[in-house]
Description:
This protein has helices spanning 10-24, 29-43, 72-77, 86-93, 111-116, 151-219, 222-246, 248-253, 265-272, 278-282, 302-318, 377-387; strands at residues 46-55, 60-66, 79-80, 97-99, 123-129, 135-144, 261-264, 286-290, 297-300, 325-333, 336-343, 391-397, 401-409. By secondary structure, the chain is α+β, with helices and mostly antiparallel strands. The strands form 3 sheets. Strands 3-2-1-6-5-4 form a 6-stranded antiparallel sheet, with helices on both faces. The protein is elongated, with a radius of gyration of 34 Å. Adenosine-5'-diphosphate (ADP) binds next to α11 and α12.
Amino acid sequence: xxxxxxxxxxxxxxxxxxxxxxxxxxxxxxxxxxxxxxxxxxxxxxxxxxxxxxxxxxxxxxxxxxxxxxxxxxxxxxxxxxxxxxxxxxxxxxxxxxxxxxxxxxxxxxxxxxxxxxxxxxxxxxxxxxxxxxxxxxxxxxxxxxxxxxxxxxxxxxxxxxxxxxxxxxxxxxxxxxxxxxxxxxxxxxxxxxxxxxxxxxxxxxxxxxxxxxxxxxxxxxxxxxxxxxxxxxxxxxxxxxxxxxxxxxxxxxxxxxxxxxxxxxxxxxxxxxxxxxxxxxxxxxxxxxxxxxxxxxxxxxxxxxxxxxxxxxxxxxxxxxxxxxxxxxxxxxxxxxxxxxxxxxxxxxxxxxxxxxxxxxxxxxxxxxxxxxxxxxxxxxxxxxxxxxxxxxxxxxxxxxxxxxxxxxxxxx
Length: 414
Ligand code: ADP
């Protein structure tokens, strides 16, 4: 039984479905285009195939991919005008076109053939569309190997062009996204590098200022001493900010900066909490701690864990109003030790609970900030927790308070 001329053979349909499946996962435009032309030539039994895409600026078509042996870069340079070319006519009329002998067509431009040394005889061309059915280019099959292009070829190529148009569009979006992501990463790195250099550079002059202030303080009379104390307070504040910036070096050094040792988390925390938090005292806040009676053995780097936990403690103090309450707990949860710090401060909206761990992210808009800080503390704490095989996260109800958790695996005993 012979098939009707305008139906598509079941094997070809199956092949088209398979092509659609493969193109669905394409994230690179050039790879997608080359795959499409290879399939176009194979499905229509042609010598070659090409894709021309519209340049939205010049409104001209350009060869983006071709399966001829020609020189692709040369081809891409040649603009194909919309109003005086076969591809242009297919694009404008938004309709498949079958040209059995190009030499007889007045729109045929032999320049391309000459440049790439490929003798085009017949063309089957179909428009390619984006998701909104807007034409974006033309897919051409060149020189049918045996006989002439059939209506089945035209139908097959039209379906392929439809699948391809959407895939190319999606691959373009994926590429744009990857590029935007790369730019963001570069910007992020620039910021981080700047912070590292700036903090380093600021440290030396600050040390000189602090040295001279304490020297002058010893010599000063009473009224002068009060003023020098204010200078010293400001310098200490500046030193703490710089220290916060310098802590990034632990993160950037990664594993190399971490020296894990087996430690009893309970006594480690008891020692850490012994010194009163001066800001909390000044704000008349109550800090209470609930530590288990039994030791909890974990692996941590003492100084690095101190940086992470102090960032959480300082935040709780900072974002809790005077007279507020802060509860620190340590408890066993399954195979982990959970440190938690709960405050009854300003809280965090639920949709920001993950973003606050991004570098430089702060809830308060930069220009109207009431609380100081660089927006680095939580990002550093998160990375440092991870370097010690731990996790960090937050729970919060806005205007009621927040709880930050750090989970560390317990050392297996026995
Ligand atoms: P910084 O404290 O320097 O602003 P962090 O990275 O430590 O930077 O914190 C990021 C942001 O997360 C803070 O600016 C604040 O908006 C929010 N935040 C952190 N801890 C708390 C907390 N305990 N209560 C309310 N908001 C908090």
